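fyi for ur records
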Amino acid sequence: MTGVRTHLRRSVALLLVGTLGLTGCDSAAPEETEPSAATPSESAAPAPDFQPGAAGAGDPYFPSYGNGGYDVAGYTVKVRYDPAKDQLSGVTTVQAKATADLSSFNLDLAHLKVSEVTVDGAPAQHRQEKNELVVTPADGLVSGRDFTAEITYAGKPKSLKNEAVGEGGWLHTSDGAIALGQPESASTWFPVNDHPSDKATYRFEITVPDGLTAISNGVPGGKTSTDGWTTWRWAENTPMASYLSMVTIGKFRITEGSHKGRPVFNAVTRKVSKGAADASMAKTIKVADYLETVFGPYPVEAYGGVVVSDERIRYALETQSRSVYSAGFFRRGENTGVVAHEVAHQWFGNSVALSRWQDIWLNEGLSSYAEWLWAEHTDEFTAKEAFEIRMARVPAEVWRTPPGKPGVKNMFSESVYQRGAMTVHALRVSVGDKAFFEILKTWAREKRDANATTEEFVALAERISGEKLDKLFDAWLYGKKKPAAPKRL
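which gave:
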């Protein structure tokens, strides 16, 4: 983000152990003995202790986000939206595996009314409690069992308001809708385990009135039209955190192509005149190709961007494979800096996702530093110059706010972005360019499609550099005063 994730039933078997009497070497028939009964501990596995799954993923910053007791493999989201009535209806299929013996499990779903739930094709009980959908299958789900839940729902979608981090989710617009936001947004239009620790694949089928375009993540799957409605299909086959899902519905200028075997899909709202926004989106490929030289192979299946114009969206967000940008970024002309930031997120934030929101500097610091690297590559300014200017000019609040532990209210503060990038540069100066760029490529490669923490990043940096870096990271990530300028270790 800029500016501002064989049905297996355990049977309980009673094992009867028979003993056969053995005799010595003589001609008499062996004496028959009665089978001996096994003790309870030997004869039966313990019966599953079915319990409700947790109503949160346990994130220290957002305890109610996500859910526990299962791991999602994939979602199929089929929705129909009528902008004239601001009404949405949908059927979402969730393919998951139980990670505990579950009597029930939760999904996140906000403001929409569920009419039916099935689990493995059988009707399941359900109830809604605020933004939680509680599903109780007819039979308990044994840990390790794969299951499929299908949820039918409808209503008037609304955004989610968070006093600390702002508004996110479904927004009705003058020509359609936008569903977007961080740290949560997906639950405003489909049931989901809404925390980045549970990454999954996604398939979207979005039906809207003819004449409107519905854009989402991943590889375009074509469109079909029937009786005045058009269904647009998209597939994100690279595991994705839920907050990176998006949909934009409206009227756009669309440019399509392919690059290195991947589709390219750019869209700019017709609310803005053709010009800087279109030109900036066209630079996405050039930026991505440069960043591959720094970070390693491009980690997702598609390229592109979407430019929207809505006063409620004054940021850019790294929605996977196709970032969304506010038109405000391009009012003064082309802006490839913001494109570099969001494309860098495809590595850092998307492919390498957070395990907990506290570590958001891993996303924003590395992506902000990518802006500096891009500027260095294009001879606009060097990363060293960018670092020195910020050392001299950032507000005092940046030094009082530790980016490695910013607190909920400061998750999107200047410290997380700018001091986060300064931390990356301090690492570069301390270990030298050879080790530094090896750290970036190794981090992207070893954590590809996975989740990560700050502690893991520090451990990797120490392993590759051969240096002890705890003092460096303690000062730059967790200190509450301005660190000394870094020097080569």
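The chain has a mean pLDDT of 92. thats all i got for now
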